Amino acid sequence: MSVLIKSGRIITAADDYVGDVFIENGTVSLLGESLDMSADKVIDAAGKYVIPGAIDPHTHIEMFFGGTTTCDDFTSGTVSAAFGGTTTLIDFCMQTPGDTFAQALEKYFKKIDRCKPVIDVASTSRHRPAHGRHARGPRENCPPRASRSYKLVMAYKGAVMVDDDTLFRTMETAADTGALVMVHAENGDAIDIIVKRAVAEGKTAPIWHARTRADGDRSRGDEPRRPARAGRRVPAVRRPRLVPALCRADRARAREGVGRLGRDLHAVPVHRRDGRSTSRASRARSTSTPPPPRPKEHQEMLWKALESDVLSVVSTDHCPFKWPEQKGINGDEFQVIPNGGPGIENRLHMLHHFGVREGRISMNRFVELVSTNVAKRFGKYNYFKPKLVEDVL
Ligand SMILES: [Zn+2]
Predict the structure, then answer these.
(1) What is the pLDDT along the chain (393 residues), one digit of tens a residue?
(2) Vertex 81 angle, CA 377 and 2, to 5°
(3) How far apart are the CA of 220 and the centre of ligand 1, in A?
(4) DSSP 8-class letter at 129
(5) Does residue 291 have a cis bond before it (omega within 30 degrees)?
(6) Which of 157, 214, 222, 270 has the fewest CB atoms inside 10 Å of its own CB, making it the most exposed?
(7) 104 close to 94: Cβ distance less than 8 angstroms
(8) Segments in 84-155 forming alpha helices (H)
(9) Separation of 192 CA from ligand 1 center, angstroms?
(10) Could you give all domains of the chain from N- to C-terminal order, each with its CATH number?
């Protein structure tokens, strides 16, 4: 099967020109101007972008969390992703207590086999706190298809929050094996105290999810430094780390500080609504997810961080629950509302509309943020060079 894409505006992280792409059996075999080849299928792309397929490195498909399961399976989630221009998901394989990594992966692949994805799917293994014989981290029992990236959560104390032992051992293993570590860098200990205090005072409306992680709160002083702390905690371990789910300006500054320390740490902003939308209880419940929406003034700083490569990847943290039956499954109290929101279909068009069309970033930078930089971090192709099997959008 061969495909010739004619006269498109070919854009990579480095190039921007009008040309043709010839694809043979899934491999980009030739790029150039006025290619004169016969092909099984010819696509006229005049006036259209032709870019490497986009990769979303942070999604939660069919994941059990907060007493319910996210409402996209691998078919519906990947169809939505494809409509939004995303051709690869990097989802999370969750390790439940008592499972080895091999068992966790086996369960994960069963979900994928049951509901076939329409695009490529990869996974990051998400670790539980150290327990029992698996406390040594992922080095043992890793099957051949094991992940090359791991996620650690420094929030949700008593549930998925990892201790320093797990944090250290996982980063150590990643350093030994060339894997990437993603860290959800909130101050789980401080938030736990603040949440319990709020609940004891009867402050349980959905808006308190944001307020217990808000500016002016006692968690504030520490939260911005958390990514830096995660980076510093294992000074001997030199591997790239990724901080997902970032939506406040001072976190971006903390990332900058880590950069000065010489660590390779990449923050991933997530698009959120204007924080003022949390003033309505129903909206607060629908946007109940860490980090909560921040005031609008944080957005400009985050755009600047994206422009200057303080931030280098944009993901969605797609974690969909149906409204109201799933979001309200445990009641209306903020501490029991399943955390998460959708977005898998909206990443490219939002970044294009608010970033490219409003003059904040170039199309080259757009391609870098949704595709090339993600590919580099996770060891995938997507450089749009001949002889590579890759997706074309
Ligand atoms: Zn997430």
Answers:
(1) 999 999 999 999 999 999 999 999 888 889 999 999 999 999 999 999 999 999 999 999 999 999 999 999 999 999 999 999 999 999 999 888 788 878 888 999 999 999 999 999 988 877 665 443 343 444 444 544 556 788 888 888 888 888 888 888 888 887 887 788 888 888 888 889 999 999 999 999 988 988 888 654 444 444 444 544 555 544 444 455 566 655 555 555 555 544 443 444 555 555 444 434 444 556 666 667 766 777 777 788 888 888 888 888 899 889 999 989 999 999 989 999 998 889 999 999 999 999 999 999 999 999 999 999 988 888 766 566 655 657 888
(2) 85
(3) 21
(4) P
(5) yes
(6) 222
(7) yes
(8) 101-114
(9) 19
(10) 2-49 (2.30.40.10), 53-378 (3.20.20.140)
Question: What's the one-letter identity of residue 298?
Answer: H
Task: Judge whether 99 and 143 are in contact, CB under 8 Å.
Answer: no
C-alpha of residue 326 to centroid of ligand 1, in Å: 17
Phi/psi at 259 (5° precision):
-55, -40
Ligand 1 centre from 319 Cα, in Å? 7
Tokens read off for 268? 């991933």
Chain-centroid distance, C-alpha 338: 18
Listed in order, strand segments (DSSP E) in 60-179 are 64-65, 68-69, 86-94, 120-126, 149-153
**Interval between CA 2 and ligand 1 midpoint (Å):** 38
The amino acid occupying position 176 is D
Is the distance from CB of 85 to CB of 125 less than 8 angstroms? no
**Rounded distance, CA 79 to CA 116, Å?**
10
Strands (E), 206-354: 241-246, 265-269
As a whole number of angstroms, the distance between CA 256 and CA 233 comes to: 17
What single letter denotes the amino acid at residue 153? V
Which amino acid makes up residue 88?
T
- The DSSP code sequence of 12-36 is -SS-EEEEEEEEETTEEEEEESS--
